[in-house]
Specification:
Layout lengths: L2 H24 L4 H19 L9 H8 L3 H9 L10 H15 L21 H8 L5 H10 L3 E3 L5 E3 L10 H24 L21 H26 L30 H5 L3
Antiparallel strand pairs: 1-2
Helix pairs in contact: 2-3, 3-4, 6-7
Amino acid sequence: MNTSTSHIILLALARILRPVIRVLLANKITYATFDEIARQVFTEEASQHFTLPGRKQSVSRIALVTGLARNEVMRLRRIPALNDKDLGNSFHRAARIISSWCSESEYQTELGEPRPLKLLGQHSFSSLVEQVDSTLSAREVLGELRQAGIIRMDAGRRIFLMSKAYIPSRDATQILKLLGTDVGDLAETITHNLNAPLEKNRFQLKVSYDNLPQDCLDTLQQMVSERGHEVLVEFDRWLRRHDRHNNPTINGNGRSRAGIGIYYFEEQAEPSASMAAGRH
């Protein structure tokens, strides 16, 4: 790897870490804890993805690849592996429940809108949850969705769907889980595209401008919210038809996780040198 590439990677790393570090500091997570997690992830990734063909991965090989001392690698390999793949479980089950509520006729009004549900009984919230995953507790899911502001319950104990998308705006824990899953998914796509032939690249596009007046941002954010939601609903319907959880008779090999993400971003842009020079 040449010096220029290494420099760009390190700058990209700094750009990724800045918002993450702000979250860590705000939640009183110290550098020592971050360092321990980083060492463990370095060890796990080297062990899984940087083996030599036909050879079992060794402590010496991991130490060479990561730059960690052999005794440190041995210590880290004795620690249980980080089970970060489970971060998205609550999001996926909530999204599936909302999708079923919005698409299954028995849970809709005559106008095709999600209807209020009773907690128990036929075509109730409990039957909806059981239809999605029989291992889930309807009351636990109810509490989770209420905390996230996705549903509300009236005085008659009817349950109303308040949002057709799972956006855990009131639940800091769930938002932090999305930090792991969503940033991780984007990073996985970029990593794939760095190594795959062009024809195998995964879709990854964005548009941005850096000299926008603050006054237009509310309109832009509203456009993204409305049109982005429309696009995601269309993709959700397609994915739902091909997902074995919803259609157990679907044929095909293997089991894959796939999806599409849309997000809005904004920040205060640094003034360019030419703009700064023109100010008096």
